[in-house]
Amino acid sequence: MKRRRGGGRPPPPAPAEATLAAAEAALGHRFADRALLIQALSHAGLSQGRDSGLASNERLEFVGDRVLGLIVAEWLIARFPEEREGALGRRLGHLVAEPSLAEVAVRIGLGPLLAVAPSDDRAGVRERRAVLADAVEAVIGALYLDGGLDAARGFIHRAFEGTVAAAAGEAPRDPKSALQEWTMARGLGLPEYRVIATTGPAHAPSFRVQVECAGRVAEAEAGVKQSAEKAAAAALLAALENGT
Prior knowledge:
Elements: H1 17-27, H2 34-40, H3 58-79, H4 85-95, H5 98-108, H6 118-122, H7 129-166, H8 175-185, E1 192-199, E2 206-213, E3 216-222, H9 225-242
Antiparallel strand pairs: 1-2, 2-3
Helix pairs in contact: 2-7, 3-4, 3-7, 5-7, 8-9
């Protein structure tokens, strides 16, 4: 199918063969349809003004998010047969959250393989947790569409094994819930969150969030507001528990 080119702009160059080969090695899968891999590696900023953004990895991210949730849920049910739904849900939320996905991206060397616009590259987009997390979901979507659930499952089990093993003890608590429980139990009231700064381009924003409770304040920054809130909550809870 011939693609539309917004505003007459030429399409972005395809990744080099060495980049595609490195990506296949990192994912443990040789693609029958390499167009899926190319799309998965294409950051949204690269297609601004072209194809209404359809050539970027955002659509594959949409698919990968659902596939990741299904496979991780299946994995957790088998790995923790004695746990109830609430604990399994906390584990699932931890594993598919932005920090865990970004860690996976760093571990497999995904950031340097992404195709990004020159201006975004200069702005350090490849190192942003939100961009890395989105890219992991996109490659999972590409793996599923190219090789089915088995291909996606194999990658997820290899890439997330260390994260799952590290959290094999008590199911992790959501930082915002944990902070609220701590402050309410001591009569300190509810934590209050607010966005104090938003930076970066529209397709890759970064949110700086502040949380305050009982006269104490903590801040954190992330590519997703909810992730920034959780990081700020974790920082404030640690300070309160340590009395610092």
